[in-house]
Amino acid sequence: MATLRDIRTRISSVKATSKITQAMKMVAAAKLRRAQDAMISARPYSKALDGLLKDLLSSAGEEITQSPVLFGRHLKDENTEKVLLIIVSSDRGLAGAFNANIIKFAEARIREVYPEHFKSKRLSLITVGRRSTDYFSKRGYDIIEKHIGIFSKLDFSTAKAIAEKSTALFGNADYDKIEVIYNEFKSVMTQRQTADRLLPVLDRSKLKEVQKGHKTFEYIYEPEPAEILNVLVPRQLETQVWKALLESNAAEQGARMSAMDSATKNAKDLISALQLSYNKARQAAITKEILEIVGGAEALTKG
Question: Which of 148, 251, 271, 272 has the fewest CB atoms within 10 Å, i.e. the most exposed one?
Answer without folding.
Answer: 272
